[in-house]
Design a protein that fits this description.
The structure is a homodimer of 195-residue chains.
Chain A (H helix, E strand, L loop, with lengths): L4 E3 L15 E7 L2 E7 L2 E6 L2 E6 L5 H9 L1 E6 L5 H9 L8 H5 L3 E2 L8 E2 L4 E8 L2 H7 L1 E12 L3 E2 L2 E2 L11 E5 L2 E10 L7
Antiparallel strand pairs in A: 1-10, 2-3, 2-6, 4-5, 5-10, 6-9, 7-8, 9-10, 11-12, 13-14
Cofactor (chains A, B): FMN
Protein name (chains A, B): Flavin reductase like domain-containing protein
Family (chains A, B): Belongs to the flavoredoxin family.
């Protein structure tokens, strides 16, 4: 990765998800890598940071998450909208070259088993906390974030700075039917100092 | 409410949350109403629609949710950023006139026990699905959406149309420290017809 790829302190990692972006979920097991899109990922706790993500039983990536116990949640950018839609609508079961076909490039960080998607704006490396009832009944997975990174062009000192960067780096927020929004302009409450 | 307040079909209700807005949570029990802000609310299922929301043990609204089994998740607008920040940082325990002080006006829809916050852009009336382990261990509540409404100026025919309305009606996406983003511009994948 490039020099913009930098660690985020774990007690600030929830801020990478707090504004509700659509994410990519990547995982690897027994030599198979896969990536899916998910609109239903959410912060769950601050420190240690935890998150929830909904992984449908039909998703091949879910098998890799269950097999390995690890996943990466990462934020695709506006420049990756087509990639995001493609990995969200194609299945590895039907299309074995899904990742290449969608233009997904993976990389790895030493010491962690799950692959990361290149050119995203932030990455959360997560270990699954086994909760069989939630997983079976609701397709709901809970995971602890054990490491996080962000692209310093858009996230620095614990805050997003989308308005100071190329609009192609903004986060995506999916509605339905190929219809996303990009995150917009800052709204700051007077008299509030950023922490 | 005004004529813009219209029902949303339950099988489209997940789209009100899909783009990751910060929400207001309202509830009522034993004659006490309260409202809090939450960044950690997320769709969980399509039809019947379900959602998750994290309610900290210190939140007075949580007691009302637990006591009544009902809550409303609603989307504040850019025009309500200060209100949202105030109900998110003040507690009814410390400030008994919190709602009046924050400028919150409530209304009710006949047949439903929980109050709704005026001037939001969408509302999801929810019945809690009791999951004591999640509630105790993670402060995580699961609820079924039994009715939904939206402001037709920004949500019609199953889709948001923020770009066609007053920017003051856009959804809020909280980061931290009084720092929100508004939702931005649409990103549409070529060749995808809206459903």
């Amino acid at each position: 990765m490039n020099t913009y790829f930098q660690p985020v302190a774990l007690n600030k990692a929830y801020r990478l998800l707090n504004h509700g972006p659509t994410v990519l979920v990547s995982a690897s097991h027994a030599g198979v890598d896969n990536v899916m899109a998910a609109a239903w990922a959410c912060a769950l706790d601050f420190d240690p940071p935890k998150l929830t993500v909904v992984l449908d039983k039909s998703a091949h990536t879910r098998q890799l998450v269950e097999g390995s116990g690890w996943l990466v949640i990462q934020l695709p950018t506006v420049a990756q909208a087509r990639l995001t839609h493609q990995v969200g609508t194609q299945s590895l079961a039907d299309q074995p070259d899904k990742l290449a076909h969608s233009g997904v490039q993976l990389f790895r960080v030493e010491g962690y088993p799950a692959p990361l998607v290149s050119d995203c704006s932030a990455w959360l490396m997560c270990r699954v906390i086994e909760e069989p009832h939630n997983q079976t009944t609701y397709d709901l997975f809970i995971a602890e974030v054990v490491a996080a990174w962000a692209d310093t062009r858009v996230f620095q000192a614990g805050h997003w700075h989308f308005e100071q960067a190329d609009p192609a780096l903004r986060s995506l927020h999916y509605v339905a039917g190929g219809h996303f929004y990009a995150i917009g302009e800052p709204v700051v409450i007077d008299g509030q100092a950023k922490e």
